[in-house]
């Protein structure tokens, strides 16, 4: 991996990003900064294979909750309460694998909780916390699939009538 100055005022990038037995990349540039940017880009993108599908995440929901707690949850003011709610949610959903948490599976969970007499506000809070788990893990690079709860609407609550003295 080197950048050499040529006699004509140009710079030659000569690199093998996959090691000495890998493909050799050579290119000329007018400025040294362009050459350095190209060299960094080649090294960074050479091993990215975007056309290959990533395997399904087979970790359990409780494992994702533990990761969330480790990296983000313990820093929150109400983190311990959220952690307990998430573990209860995972137990109620029968602790699915991460690839099994989908919009339809969460809709089934919401319907089950509503039929058990749980208030819409409590269910919306659980949805918000679980959505935050996936958002945090995606942002930190610990979860690579699509956000499974993105686009799920919250349950509309009926506003109670105000009473005045």
UniProtKB/TrEMBL annotation:
Domain Core-binding (CB): from-to ranges: 59-138
In terms of InterPro entries, this protein maps to: CB (IPR044068), DNA_brk_join_enz (IPR011010), Int_N (IPR057084), Integrase_recombinase_N (IPR010998)
Superkingdom classification of source: Bacteria
Task: Please list the GO biological process terms of this entry.
Answer: DNA integration
- Residue span of region Disordered: 1-32
- Residues annotated as transmembrane: none
- GO MF entries: DNA binding
Task: Keywords in alphabetical order, please.
Answer: DNA integration, DNA-binding
- Keyword DNA-binding in the entry? The reply is yes
Q: What is this protein called?
A: p2-like Phage integrase
This protein's gene is called: int_6
């Amino acid at each position: 991996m080197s950048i050499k100055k040529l006699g004509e005022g140009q710079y030659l990038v000569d690199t093998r990003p996959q090691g000495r037995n890998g493909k050799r990349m050579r290119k000329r540039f007018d400025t040294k900064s362009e050459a350095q940017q190209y060299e960094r880009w080649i090294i960074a993108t050479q091993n990215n294979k975007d056309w290959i599908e990533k395997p399904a995440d087979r970790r359990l929901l409780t494992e994702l909750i533990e990761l969330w707690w480790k990296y983000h949850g313990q820093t929150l003011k109400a983190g311990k309460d959220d952690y307990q709610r998430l573990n209860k949610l995972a137990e109620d959903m029968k602790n699915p694998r991460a690839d099994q948490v989908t919009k339809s599976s969460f809709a089934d969970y919401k319907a089950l909780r509503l039929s058990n007499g749980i208030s819409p506000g409590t269910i919306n809070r659980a949805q918000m916390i679980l959505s935050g788990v996936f958002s945090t893990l995606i942002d930190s690079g610990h979860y690579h699939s699509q956000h499974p709860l993105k686009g799920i609407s919250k349950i509309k609550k009926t506003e109670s009538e105000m009473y005045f003295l």
